[in-house]
């Protein structure tokens, strides 16, 4: 519309043809990303046809930004240097305009003027494309790192559950053997032992379901690692205190016996929360609160923030979220109005 208004204000005869050519060039540039080499070049050719039917090149100003956008598009949206073919076509059309339409005297200053219109947009387009490619590569690598972190966390969960299930099955074998020895001499004791075996089997079955859910999409081999739990929480806290983190712990005593998967995951969540507090806390202090109801285990960890709590890789929090999601719990974290970074996790406590 600005170009049409400029043409009408100039009053050059016939100005309407020039306005139509500007509109056609702009319309072609709207679709420049689909085929930039053809459409951007064609838009410029249409634009440079204006001197043949309307005002001369030095009379209208609106064609200049349209031309610059076309040159930029040849550099930004053409993958390789084929965009220079379109630039060469532009230069040839300008030369034809100067040679056959513009009757003014021409010299090397006109060459410099045309180069000044072409070179900056083209260079800017190539730089923009290079930066966009680097940004895309960086985002792709970050996504790969996140996926690898989730996969590693799933592997670790699976290894821990593998160890828990192996322990449960071993206990069942030992208890069943004891019941076999007592089934005739002490039936009541044998019955109690078998009831314990049944309870252990149900817990192992529940953990097996969780394990299968974890490794359903990943067929990696599992290793064996000792599975820590909240019973190891005092030792964990002392390790962080030895590293310089002043931890205030508030735990409901006594905590009930938790399903093995919940117990291991709760320990890992606390471990990661304290690690973040040690790395990013403002004054190397942290507060930890654990409480449990018959249905839910709640974990709250907080520490003063120095403003850089969100500048880490985020993979630790990603691992926590993976654990909480697999167990059907909930997770929230962020910096509150009091300037403290707070993490709240709830894990459902399954009834054995």
From TrEMBL:
Entry superkingdom: Bacteria
Gene Ontology molecular function terms on file: ATP binding; phosphorelay sensor kinase activity; protein dimerization activity
Classification via InterPro entries: HATPase_C_sf (IPR036890), Sensor_HK_TwoCompSys (IPR050482), Sig_transdc_His_kin_sub3_dim/P (IPR011712)
Domain Signal transduction histidine kinase subgroup 3 dimerisation and phosphoacceptor: 153-218
Transferase among keywords: yes
Reactions the enzyme catalyzes: ATP + protein L-histidine = ADP + protein N-phospho-L-histidine
Key words, A-Z: ATP-binding, Kinase, Membrane, Nucleotide-binding, Phosphoprotein, Transferase, Transmembrane, Transmembrane helix, Two-component regulatory system
Pfam family, one: HisKA_3
Spans traversing the lipid bilayer: 12-30, 37-54, 60-77, 84-101, 107-125
Class of the enzyme per the UniProt entry, highest EC level: transferase
Cellular component, GO, one term: membrane
EC number: 2.7.13.3
PANTHER family according to UniProt: NITRATE/NITRITE SENSOR PROTEIN NARX-RELATED (PTHR24421), NITRATE_NITRITE SENSOR PROTEIN NARQ (PTHR24421:SF10)
Name listed for the protein in its UniProt record: histidine kinase
Organismal lineage: Bacteria, Bacillati, Actinomycetota, Actinomycetes, Micromonosporales
């Amino acid at each position: 519309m600005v170009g049409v208004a400029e043409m009408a204000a100039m009053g050059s005869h016939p100005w309407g043809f020039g306005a139509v050519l500007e509109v056609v060039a702009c319309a072609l540039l709207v679709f420049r990303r689909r085929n930039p080499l053809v459409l951007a070049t064609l838009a410029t050719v249409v634009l440079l046809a204006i001197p043949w039917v309307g005002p001369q090149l030095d009379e209208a100003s609106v064609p200049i930004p349209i031309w610059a956008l076309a040159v930029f598009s040849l550099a930004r949206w053409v993958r390789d240097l084929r965009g220079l073919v379109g630039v060469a076509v532009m230069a040839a059309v300008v030369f034809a305009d100067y040679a056959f339409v513009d009757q003014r005297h021409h010299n090397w200053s006109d060459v410099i003027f045309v180069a000044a219109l072409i070179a900056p947009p083209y260079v800017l387009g190539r730089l923009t494309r290079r930066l966009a490619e680097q940004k895309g590569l960086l985002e792709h690598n970050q996504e790969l790192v996140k996926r690898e972190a989730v996969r590693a966390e799933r592997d670790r969960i699976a290894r821990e559950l593998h160890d828990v299930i192996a322990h449960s099955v071993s206990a069942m074998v030992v208890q069943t053997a004891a019941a076999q020895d007592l089934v005739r001499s002490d039936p009541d004791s044998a019955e109690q032992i078998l009831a314990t075996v049944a309870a252990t089997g149900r817990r192992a079955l529940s953990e097996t379901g969780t394990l299968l859910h974890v490794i359903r999409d990943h067929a990696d081999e599992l290793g064996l690692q000792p599975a820590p739990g909240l019973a190891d929480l005092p030792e964990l806290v002392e390790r962080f205190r030895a590293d310089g983190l002043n931890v205030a712990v508030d735990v409901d005593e006594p905590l009930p016996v938790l399903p093995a998967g919940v117990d291991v995951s709760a320990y890992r969540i606390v471990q990661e929360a304290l690690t973040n507090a040690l790395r990013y806390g403002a004054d190397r202090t942290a507060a930890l609160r654990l409480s449990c109801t018959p249905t839910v285990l709640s974990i709250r960890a907080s520490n003063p923030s120095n403003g850089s709590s969100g500048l880490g890789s985020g993979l630790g929090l990603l691992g926590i979220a993976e654990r909480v999601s697999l167990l059907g719990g909930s997770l929230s974290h962020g910096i509150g109005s009091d300037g403290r970074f707070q993490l709240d996790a709830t894990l459902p406590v399954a009834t054995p």
